[in-house]
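Re: [ENG-882] Designed sequences occasionally contain unexpected residues at chain ends

Forwarding the minimal case from QA. Structure tokens:
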């Protein structure tokens, strides 16, 4: 088993599990409450809660299925970057872990930054 496969499985599960948790355990109301405290999403937190939950679930499954990775990784990268700078700003361990995941998504897509 190669490392790229392991990385793809873990990054797919990172999004899929988070999305399923938000859908079936935390529920939309908890996500709406969290998003209403963020200025960027305060104007329609219910709408953005559903966008977030469905995006994490769908794109996590797409990454696991290896479906068009060069494009599929973009929404998770946006989600994790926004979360890092809004929810986890000040909690430096979580902040850095979110940014590490973002960089791994770009590697998974095969983007070259040389």
């Amino acid at each position: 088993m190669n490392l790229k496969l392991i990385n793809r499985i873990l990054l797919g599960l990172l999004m899929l599990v988070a999305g399923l948790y938000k859908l079936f355990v935390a529920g939309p109301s908890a996500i709406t409450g969290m998003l209403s405290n963020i200025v960027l999403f305060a104007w329609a937190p219910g709408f953005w809660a559903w966008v977030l939950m469905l995006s994490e679930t769908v794109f996590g499954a797409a990454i696991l299925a290896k479906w068009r990775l060069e494009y599929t990784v973009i929404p998770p990268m946006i989600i994790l970057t926004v979360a890092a700078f809004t929810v986890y700003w000040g909690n430096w361990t979580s902040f850095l872990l979110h940014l590490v995941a973002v960089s791994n998504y770009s590697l998974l897509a095969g983007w070259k930054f040389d």
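QA comment: On inspection the terminal residues look reasonable. The chain has one domain: 3-109. Proposing we downgrade this to a documentation issue.
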